[in-house]
Amino acid sequence: MEPSSSLSLSLSVNGTRHDIALDDPRVTLLDLLRERLGLTGSKKGCDRGQCGACTVLVNGRRVNSCLSLAVSLDGAEVTTIEGLAQGDALHPVQAAFIAHDGFQCGFCTPGQIMSAVGLIREGRAGDDPERVREAMSGNLCRCGAYIGITQAVLDAQAKMSEQQGEAA
Q1: Most buried pick, 62, 103, 129, 152, via CB within 10 A?
Q2: pTM exceeds 0.85
């Protein structure tokens, strides 16, 4: 009998624990999410970490999932675009993207939204459009919806700050 060469890992994805066996240690987080878990919201754009279409949150930090080996994330908490909304209630960033037309074709939108959520959580959004553009520069939009994206991030940041102030 041949020894098993599979690796096992456990991830919490959008609040649900997954115990996963991998036959290949080179499987990326993006491929695991899309092909094994059926979470296709994160897109495979360049597959080189240059476009940001695959951005997810790992332990609350923005990550290009196409560059992250799944096996290196054992025990991590992963949030994808599918995990943002609470039932029918959109996350404030999702609602702001709609309100400010922060998307056109929609291909980059999940990565843009996840990057914006991470940026706001990092406390780096502020109220300066140039600061937001710089912090979001790893997420490309071929349609050029950058004005709407920037406004959406600023609007969501303001609303989330206001909500946190009211909750305190």
Answers
A1: 152
A2: yes
